[in-house]
Design brief:
4 helices; 227 residues; seven-stranded antiparallel β-sheet; alpha+beta
Length: 227
């Protein structure tokens, strides 16, 4: 007996696959109208030519150099010219000379204080263009400790002028300097002393504390007659 049994005979002239239907599981490649190759869906990365890359680098370097030069010029200017402050924005002035000029138009004697060594006046002026028509004398005193006092003086003080001169500061009672009472007003960091000396009213304003104001108030009491 043969080890391999023979199967049914197949006609020699009939190909084995001639009438065999295609299997449903057989994959058939298809490129439909709506599909696209995978490469077309990838983002396109721009590529700079060597000349373009060199030009871009030169532009960036130019911007950096420009910024550095601007900073190099600006920093020394800022250091040489610090921000203006009321106590430093002007050099010392001759307050006695300006006061003598103002006296020609004033109804009182404009006060030109004899300041202690180290203190100075950094501005002085006679104001005539006020809305209410009240003329007044004003100057600024810088102390040796870099503290500042704004002085205003007039013979025509009234409530509206005092409100303007003190920037609508709030009355806060009285403050006594060597036995003399001054009206005390406050606003924010400012403290203001107001007193009538002879024919004029004096207004002293500072944000440096009452000790600073007391020194100038004491000087005003010594140099401006009370009656």
């Amino acid at each position: 007996m043969s080890e391999h049994p023979e199967g049914p005979a197949v006609p020699a002239d009939t190909p084995a696959s001639a009438n065999t239907p295609a299997s449903a599981d057989t994959a058939v490649p298809s490129h439909g109208l709506g599909s696209a190759p995978d490469d077309a869906q990838q983002p396109v990365k721009p590529v700079l030519t060597p000349k373009q890359a060199k030009r871009a680098n030169q532009t960036l370097k130019g911007m950096i150099i420009s910024v550095l030069l601007t900073v190099a010029v600006a920093v020394p200017v800022i250091l040489i010219n610090p921000a203006d402050k009321a106590e430093t924005f002007r050099a010392p002035v001759d307050v006695a000379d300006v006061a003598s000029q103002a006296a020609a138009d004033a109804d009182f004697t404009p006060w030109a204080p004899n300041l202690p060594e180290g203190d100075y006046v950094n501005f002085a002026r006679w104001i005539t263009g006020n809305v209410d028509g009240i003329k007044y004398w004003e100057f600024g005193v810088v102390t040796k400790d870099d503290e500042f006092v704004w002085v205003k003086q007039t013979a025509g003080a009234n409530p509206s002028w005092l409100a303007a001169a003190t920037e609508n500061a709030t009355p806060a009672g009285t403050h006594t300097v060597d036995g003399t009472d001054w009206e005390l007003r406050t606003k924010d960091n400012d403290q203001i002393l107001v007193s009538t000396r002879g024919a004029s009213t004096i207004v002293l304003t500072s944000d440096s504390g009452l000790d600073t104001l007391d020194k100038l108030a004491r000087l005003a009491q010594q140099e401006i007659p009370a009656n």
